[in-house]
Fold each of these.
Amino acid sequence: MYTFFVLIEILVCILLIIVVLMQSSKGGGLAGSFGGSNFGTVFGVRRTADFLTRATTILATTFIVLSLLINLFFLPGKGKSAGESIIQTGQTSVPPAQIPAQQAPAPTSGQ
């Protein structure tokens, strides 16, 4: 089940990338480079923009919902209990630092 949802997530991700890149910006966008400008003649310019905006919204919502679903219910290894963390137990893993004893400097011979 986990693999199925991950594959659907990857498919939605690829479709979302394509739909976002097909939207035309002020400079013409990537849609003009790959012949996407002809895409506007099928539906009309305004209807194409509405279609791409709606597709972006639906795909982005699907992407977020699938991400949360996979993370909350199907993440592998979630059932394993790691026990309490060090912060929860209040223990420290590093012993306190000890200052080494300083020795008196060796006397130097005078000239």
Amino acid sequence: MKNFRINPDKKYVSTIIEGLERKDGHCPCRVNVDDTTLCPCDEFVNDGICKCKLYIPMEDALKKLEKLKNENK
């Protein structure tokens, strides 16, 4: 999806990836799983909404990168 990127918080992303693995590729934020919840889920593909925040808008990602950079100084 255009203007989105994977969340730059590596620790957070690692947790989400572990959830995806536990749920066989389905969004870890979903209780009910079906073909529409395979990551990237239909809600993200169709509406640009990623409830688990694995994919975030580019502008948010840039802010988060700056914040992470400042925390690591």
Amino acid sequence: MIKKVKFVLTAILAILMIAVISSAIFINSFAAKVSEVDTSLAKSARAATLMDFDTGTIVFEKNSTDRYPIASMVKIMTLLLIFEQIENGDLSINHDIVVSENAASMGGSQAFLDANTAYKAGELIKSIIVASANDSCVALAEHICGTVDSFVEMMNKKASELSMQNTNFVNCTGLPAPNGYSCAKDVATMLRNLIKFDMFFYYAKVWLYDFQHPNGRTTTLTNTNKLIKAYKGCDGGKTGFTQEAQYCLAATAKRGDTRLISVAMGLKEPKVRNFEVSNLFNYGFGNYETRQFVCKDIPLQEMQVKRGKTELLQIAPLNDYFYFSAKTNKQKIESQVVLEDVTAPIEKRQVVGKLILKTGEQVLIEIPLIALIDIDEKSYIDFLNSVVKEW
């Protein structure tokens, strides 16, 4: 039978834990109480949400699940699916995308693409992120799925996977159409998933550029998200406007280790939209913080391995782990390592135990601990050599 050996973490980790602020599991209820009494936020917005990126914790919400048209914020899902195609190897930024007559005919914000002309996928993606180009959205949707309708089916399937219960997509652009809607919480959710792709930020920071058409023509495109210059730490987002949706904005900003997502919908003017989103960020950064608890790149300690060619095994957490909480909400968190009684052979990244975090009797999280190296089992010759050395 495998026995489990329990012991407290090293003194350094214990000292670290004394200063730890409570995890996201704690902050959910506390954050709601704070936001309920703060009436200065998102006064002009039809709906709003402020979310922590790392944990998905919502620290402020106003009508956050009410269904409204969201205009070009629909493109957040369009971009998310495009980046997933790149990640899966089904699309490359160097792929040639032939623009159909349908794509080139899109109204609203556009890159003014030439029909029956090939553009690099990367250039089309850039025009969507910077200038909200509807024609580029349709061209990529048709390339990926054959038709826009099929791409929209993919969008709604992804929304379901992300538990976006108050969202229905009817196109990939956000242009006005019956029965197309989402909510502030769902918008924050899909932006949270989009910004996990570093390539998004590569394009999102572009302020102004000349879009080069294959025939030599250029179209000057400007970033629609003015907060990337106007708000410290803002490095991406997606704007939207239609008469039905009014002015909308979903943006992200990072200060220190804290990254927040702010969504405001249904504003009468773009300046008011930017003000409300900035105000939400100010509230979030002023009252909350994210700290890294453990790092997957730093060995936690060593453990004994039976019958191994190497007797000591370095272990570390499976992933980086962060916690997010109100700055005033301090909790003492106890930590404990539980290791399995392991016998070689051991494979690298094999789970060999867990790190338990708790406050009082409540367990906050159990973090898998993994082996950092392979350890082979001692052979008969290895055992003989050991005996000779000890003789």
Amino acid sequence: MKLFLIVSIILLLSANVVYAGEADVVEVYVKKTGDNVFHFSVAVRHQDEGWDHYADKWEVVAPDGTVLGTRVLHHPHVNEQPFTRSLSGVKIPDNIEAVTVRAHDSVHQYGGKTVAVELPR
């Protein structure tokens, strides 16, 4: 009985980490603002639980895996889901026609849904 109680408590405590899951990119808008310079507005969905588990950034990634831009998210968005944040001044070389946007959370890191987007030229 004592072992059952201990295992049950461990499972209940770990359920919070599993519940929030990974951060998903759900929508991306991109606008060209200059020569090879772009503005991104990205919507992210994650069941933020507070400071211990929240979506903490999203990135614009080139086809070869190079990170071209990062939008750091400085606080949890517990009551704002999905939420949209922007990043301006992302420089992307001429030879890149499309990028992938991925989100990161403080527990699972990467692994949620990504969005591939063609760049307006």
